[in-house]
Amino acid sequence: MHYIYILHIVFLFMIGARNVNAQVEHNYPVGPQSTNCDSLDITLLSLDEAILKVESSKFRFQQQFKISRTYGVMSAKYYSCNGKSGYLIMLVDKKDLMYLEVPKSVWDTLITSSDINAFYKSEIEESYELIKD
């Protein structure tokens, strides 16, 4: 049990270290700055095309994690243009998934969850629009 606790701490440290763009809070509306994500249209794209388009765009906030395992949530990437909601790209059971309009608060809870698989199943899997192939 102690071993799992240490792995969780290491995992959280790695997530914090991978934060590519620091989020700055403002008390007034701020549009996308140095980004091109505010005009993405992925509605008619296949899953692979949509993932490629999102991953090749510039976002105000992006963060990711990867877990070495053979089942369940294996990795996740979160991209937000406005700092409030965004795209969630996940690898679950070796299958790519992409969710739309996922609140940043859900991402924050996911990455700090003690059971990422359970949180995914209960709070994400059936709760947000999924781009299907």
Question: Can you walk me through this structure?
Answer:
It is a single chain. The chain has 133 residues and is an alpha+beta fold. It has one domain. Helix content is 32%, strand content 25%. The protein has a five-stranded antiparallel β-sheet, sandwiched between helices. Strand 1 and strand 2 form a beta hairpin. The longest helix is centred in the first third of the chain and has 16 residues. The termini are far apart. About 5% of the residues have low confidence.
pLDDT averaged residue by residue: 83
- The amount of helix comes to 25-40%
What is the molecular shape? globular
Number of H/I helices: 4
Walk across the major sheet and give the strand order: 1-2-3-4-5
Strand content: 15-25%
The unreliable regions are 17-22
* End-to-end separation: 39 Å
- Sheet having the most strands: 5 strands, antiparallel
Count of distinct strands: 5
**Total domain units:** 1
C-alpha Rg (nearest Å): 15 Å
What's the order of the H and E elements?
A: HHEEEEHHE
Class by SSE composition: alpha+beta
